[in-house]
Amino acid sequence: MHAVAKHAGVSPMSVSNVINGRRVLPHTREAVLRAIADLDYKPNAAARALASASPVRIGLLYNSPESAFVSALLVGALDAATRFGAQLLIRRFEEHRTLSDILFDMVEGGANALILPAPYCEAASGTGLIERLNVPLIALCSGSELPDMSSVRVDDAAAARDMTNYLIGLGHRRIGFVRGAQNHIISRTRFEGYRLALLEHDLELDPDLVVDGDLTFDSGLGATEQLLSLRQPPTAIFASNDDMAAAIVSVAHRRDIRVPDQLSVAGFDDSPISRKIWPALTTVRQPIVDMTEIAVESLIEILGNPATKEPLATFTTYADYSLVIRGSTSAPGLC
Amino acid sequence: MHAVAKHAGVSPMSVSNVINGRRVLPHTREAVLRAIADLDYKPNAAARALASASPVRIGLLYNSPESAFVSALLVGALDAATRFGAQLLIRRFEEHRTLSDILFDMVEGGANALILPAPYCEAASGTGLIERLNVPLIALCSGSELPDMSSVRVDDAAAARDMTNYLIGLGHRRIGFVRGAQNHIISRTRFEGYRLALLEHDLELDPDLVVDGDLTFDSGLGATEQLLSLRQPPTAIFASNDDMAAAIVSVAHRRDIRVPDQLSVAGFDDSPISRKIWPALTTVRQPIVDMTEIAVESLIEILGNPATKEPLATFTTYADYSLVIRGSTSAPGLC
Which residue of A has its CA nearest to B69? Predict the structure, then answer.
């Protein structure tokens, strides 16, 4: 079809339109019919279907659409797919179905590769599901290395340690920490970074200063109320993601607590929300767009390599994180 | 393949795995092979390819991934696609290419229907492009009715008039307005609603109170600086979308202007950002998820109707908007 299009000086779509009897301009139809005759082209439905079925189709499972991380992830995946000419089949996780059913549906629906963000990659790890799916799969932003899955991630523990060290360096001694959802490995590894930084500076880990959230904005509201109601409230709070950090800033405004003079706030991800609140958030930048691009590119390479009958060796690719310092953090005030 | 799967009591994917020599559990392979023999099934590559090519594949073009409206749109489209079992081919607009080239690419890449959000539907209207593409297409959130395209939208002018009336009802007399990008029809129709409300209340339209933004957060920062630098600044500002309204709140915080006591702020869209800033935004709720669902459902119906050789009549579906009153608006202060 592309040869006919080139010969006729029209788009392959016009060729398809003529072949399928759809409306086109008279001179386009003439040019296509002449090219079909010149090249002795025999339209073949099967070949056309196979050609349109051949592109790389990457399935991506997501959830929590209100989450700023998820919008960043979607945008990153869409960008990378556009750049590499891959198709994305994006599916939202449905609570009433099993992960296994959803992933099999995606593969049966045409996905020939999968990107599985946390926490789904973590849930699938160790279950044998990946082997049964039998398509190349890359885990994205898993909270730790996964023994049976290739992944693209940042070193969450090191990043959280760096951010905590930064807050300690500003002079904070009572630093609150809002953990992530329990089904996310980051709830463990980011907390571990916080714990290590305190340890390195001989600061006591006060269990009252560590509260659980579930990565949603709303859970951040409750966690903040809990921390600010302590008899000795923290002078800084580090949340496991930006949505919860935005909630901390919101509660501070409501209680007339000045950020950062009276309370420093730090997040994690550098998702768009971090710039749109005031003061803008100090946060750990995870380069989600780049990371998704690496995942997409890896999958295209794997699919393009015919020698992949054997199970692939798993590899973990580390993306560089960085601390982004904005207006939400400063030295503790003297109040 | 589905008959074989049913007969064998396994998933169609397992049948595909056996046929294609991929690894499956021994008893799965046995069951599939027995079913293939029982049913005298002849794997046919073409039929398989056609089957996988047959699903509804809706192309969706978007841009400005940092925009809260766009993330809401993506999430809505993904939700609706999941619910209806349609596939989405999502493509980001690339500045260096023409709209025509991108849309033809999407159709050639397998999209058999298109959803075109503003401003792309508006740019395509009247150019004949839609007819040449020759796939069912629905415009989403166009700023007005489009003569040559079916669309799903809210009545932007009526909504903006209602919001302006609400602000007037609170007692505001100097109400600033931040317009959208010039290539969006909403820049005209939402402004028209603002103008009409002032007219109905015999309030003068002060041209100094109307500034141009481009719907981005950053453009909202500049627009706000301009309005707040007036000798007689407004007591309320109504922005054409939530991202720009969030920027107004941000500038107010920075200048130590209390929202809403000293400045009321209203947005448009009710995108997730409107809840995550403090104070939360009073805004016009556009039910993007429902609207995208209507667009997806309409396209599936059109595709499922074989009697669509004739050009379809265009129709405009109006979704109900509503005013969402949150903390960013109040009666003007006495300062």
Answer: A71
Cβ-based contacts of B62 with chain A (< 8 Å): 78
Chain B residue numbers touching A75 (CB-CB < 8 A): 65, 71, 74
Which residue among B22, B24, B90 places its CB closest to the CB of A88?
Answer: B90
Domains B56-154+288-304 and B156-285 share a fold: yes
Q: How far apart are CA A132 and CA B24, in angstroms?
A: 7
CA distance A172 to A264: 9
Residue B18: per-residue pLDDT? 76
Predicted confidence band of residue B53 (pLDDT cuts 50, 70, 90): very low
CATH of domain A2-52: 1.10.260.40
Over residues A102-160, the pLDDT tens digits come to 999 999 888 999 999 999 999 999 999 988 998 999 999 999 999 999 999 999 999 99
Distance from CA of B145 to the nearest CA of A (A): 25
State the ipTM, two decimals.
0.75
Measured between beta carbons, the chain B residues lying within 8 angstroms of A280 are 250
Residue A3 has pLDDT above 70, yes or no: yes
> Which CATH number applies to A56-154+288-304?
3.40.50.2300
CB contact under 8 A, A53 and B53: yes
Instruction: Show Cβ contacts of residue A176 under 8 Å, excluding neighbours closer than 6 positions.
Output: A209, A210, A211, A227, A233, A234, A236, A237, A238
Gap from B90 CA to chain A (nearest CA, Å): 7
Sorted by sequence, the CB contacts under 8 Å of residue A290 that are 6+ apart come out as A76, A319
